[in-house]
């Protein structure tokens, strides 16, 4: 089947950037991204895109209206396209069977049903959303059960590996593109058709093809391995803080082993984002359903350690502030789940702020890209913390910059590794904070010795660093040798 028109259902963090890059690299293809959310589509058609992603603006503006379209007319786009990406959200189920672990596939299923109802010609349906193994089989069953005469469907798995904040670079220069399909001649023809789209810019050797189930599992496996590395280094960070070892040195030492590699070994306040926790829990649930309880327990620990790391960090703040933060003011720098994105889904900052709010702390929050309404919405996800509706607004202040957030605060907490936080005037910040002034670096981005010299009490993940210890280390005292 030759592909001329592509439709993508779901104009989110994946559908939007992925299809913009396809349109950018394949000018002869017409790409239409559709969504049921009219506000989102209006933003994609405006000067202020619904998501912040470096270089996304340029890519969208170079092809929007030429061969890239954003629309709410889902049916028309389905009707016209030969190839349809399903790129809708697959959140953790919050009801019924598998609640809190299984992926909720209701949006994926509704797309399959819509395609079956609308299509008047054969389609290649591409599962771009992250799904449990065998989801493609369910999509195929729905399509085939509703098939009209003369129409044929092929369902492919083509998971997305982009990371937010680097999405455009990841899409333009992917480590690999994975395509899973049926091991039949029609299946392989569909795999080739999708491969042809990517071959416009991705070298052929980076396009990996396999059976559908391997492809689906590979996506969950990749995220589970990445999340597991973070939980592993964060578990090491707890040992470091007790023993006096330095987690960055340990990460460097193990990362030079080419079998381990040096990426994804940055200790932190725990991984956030819409994917890692959701996908690891999805894997845990899959293992339980497959009667593999030991395997399920193994992966569950990756999430448990992440929860532990977040709680450990907020407990450390409370302990260092003389065991109480009640009515104290704490400045939180960064609310997004990582730098270079405005996305806050599952951000560790949410959990840390909620722990501090539970203790009655006042918090001043500054993030360069997250909007006030989003922060307040995220923090109110646990209404039981606030004994009255006004309490949230009483305890939380959203600030226009880091200096305002820090003024008159007892402590400054780095939650997101935004570059600008490393270059602030900490002398000025110190002079406007209450004393003793504390800095908690949850991302290991600050110059800790300079902060100590300015008079701050400094606490960092994975390293015991007090003013006194630092002095001993940096200026060997007489008689210490
Ligand atoms: N965010 C990431 O970085 C990332 C990376 C790789 C894979 N993924 C996976 O990709 C999928 C999408 O993630 P996302 O972050 O783009 O989600 P998102 O929530 O940003 O976007 C999903 C969009 O789908 C729309 N939608 C839902 N049902 C629809 C329907 N029936 N018809 C039309 N539109 C519909 C929603 O309105 C929403 O705008 C998920 O499975 C996710 O796990 C995400
Ligand atoms: O060494 C590290 C690396 C990351 N993180 C944290 O881990 C989280 C996730 O970061 P990252 O993986 O860079 O961003 P995501 O956008 O969540 O991307 C992940 O999830 C996507 C959705 O499935 C996949 O497509 C990507 O390949 C995968 O990296 C963030 O909170 C990071 O701060 C650390 O704490 N330490």
From TrEMBL:
<dbReference type="GO" id="GO:0003979">
    <property type="term" value="F:UDP-glucose 6-dehydrogenase activity"/>
</dbReference>
<dbReference type="GO" id="GO:0006024">
    <property type="term" value="P:glycosaminoglycan biosynthetic process"/>
</dbReference>
<comment type="pathway">
    <text>Nucleotide-sugar biosynthesis; UDP-alpha-D-glucuronate biosynthesis; UDP-alpha-D-glucuronate from UDP-alpha-D-glucose: step 1/1.</text>
</comment>
<feature type="binding site">
    <location>
        <begin position="88"/>
        <end position="92"/>
    </location>
    <ligand>
        <name>NAD(+)</name>
    </ligand>
</feature>
<feature type="binding site">
    <location>
        <position position="164"/>
    </location>
    <ligand>
        <name>NAD(+)</name>
    </ligand>
</feature>
<feature type="active site" description="Nucleophile">
    <location>
        <position position="275"/>
    </location>
</feature>
<dbReference type="Pfam" id="PF00984">
    <property type="entry name" value="UDPG_MGDP_dh"/>
</dbReference>
<feature type="binding site">
    <location>
        <begin position="266"/>
        <end position="272"/>
    </location>
    <ligand>
        <name>substrate</name>
    </ligand>
</feature>
<feature type="domain" description="UDP-glucose/GDP-mannose dehydrogenase C-terminal">
    <location>
        <begin position="331"/>
        <end position="448"/>
    </location>
</feature>
<keyword id="KW-0560">Oxidoreductase</keyword>
<dbReference type="InterPro" id="IPR014026">
    <property type="entry name" value="UDP-Glc/GDP-Man_DH_dimer"/>
</dbReference>
<dbReference type="Pfam" id="PF03721">
    <property type="entry name" value="UDPG_MGDP_dh_N"/>
</dbReference>
<feature type="binding site">
    <location>
        <position position="259"/>
    </location>
    <ligand>
        <name>substrate</name>
    </ligand>
</feature>
<feature type="binding site">
    <location>
        <begin position="275"/>
        <end position="278"/>
    </location>
    <ligand>
        <name>NAD(+)</name>
    </ligand>
</feature>
<keyword id="KW-0520">NAD</keyword>
<comment type="function">
    <text>Involved in the biosynthesis of glycosaminoglycans; hyaluronan, chondroitin sulfate, and heparan sulfate.</text>
</comment>
<dbReference type="GO" id="GO:0051287">
    <property type="term" value="F:NAD binding"/>
</dbReference>
<feature type="binding site">
    <location>
        <position position="443"/>
    </location>
    <ligand>
        <name>substrate</name>
    </ligand>
</feature>
<feature type="binding site">
    <location>
        <begin position="337"/>
        <end position="338"/>
    </location>
    <ligand>
        <name>substrate</name>
    </ligand>
</feature>
<feature type="binding site">
    <location>
        <begin position="129"/>
        <end position="130"/>
    </location>
    <ligand>
        <name>NAD(+)</name>
    </ligand>
</feature>
<feature type="binding site">
    <location>
        <begin position="160"/>
        <end position="164"/>
    </location>
    <ligand>
        <name>substrate</name>
    </ligand>
</feature>
<dbReference type="InterPro" id="IPR036220">
    <property type="entry name" value="UDP-Glc/GDP-Man_DH_C_sf"/>
</dbReference>
<feature type="binding site">
    <location>
        <begin position="219"/>
        <end position="223"/>
    </location>
    <ligand>
        <name>substrate</name>
    </ligand>
</feature>
<dbReference type="InterPro" id="IPR036291">
    <property type="entry name" value="NAD(P)-bd_dom_sf"/>
</dbReference>
<comment type="similarity">
    <text>Belongs to the UDP-glucose/GDP-mannose dehydrogenase family.</text>
</comment>
<feature type="binding site">
    <location>
        <position position="40"/>
    </location>
    <ligand>
        <name>NAD(+)</name>
    </ligand>
</feature>
<dbReference type="InterPro" id="IPR017476">
    <property type="entry name" value="UDP-Glc/GDP-Man"/>
</dbReference>
<dbReference type="InterPro" id="IPR028356">
    <property type="entry name" value="UDPglc_DH_euk"/>
</dbReference>
<dbReference type="InterPro" id="IPR014027">
    <property type="entry name" value="UDP-Glc/GDP-Man_DH_C"/>
</dbReference>
<protein>
    <recommendedName>
        <fullName>UDP-glucose 6-dehydrogenase</fullName>
        <ecNumber>1.1.1.22</ecNumber>
    </recommendedName>
</protein>
<feature type="binding site">
    <location>
        <position position="35"/>
    </location>
    <ligand>
        <name>NAD(+)</name>
    </ligand>
</feature>
<feature type="binding site">
    <location>
        <begin position="10"/>
        <end position="15"/>
    </location>
    <ligand>
        <name>NAD(+)</name>
    </ligand>
</feature>
<dbReference type="InterPro" id="IPR001732">
    <property type="entry name" value="UDP-Glc/GDP-Man_DH_N"/>
</dbReference>
<dbReference type="Pfam" id="PF03720">
    <property type="entry name" value="UDPG_MGDP_dh_C"/>
</dbReference>
<dbReference type="InterPro" id="IPR008927">
    <property type="entry name" value="6-PGluconate_DH-like_C_sf"/>
</dbReference>
<dbReference type="GO" id="GO:0005634">
    <property type="term" value="C:nucleus"/>
</dbReference>
<feature type="binding site">
    <location>
        <position position="345"/>
    </location>
    <ligand>
        <name>NAD(+)</name>
    </ligand>
</feature>
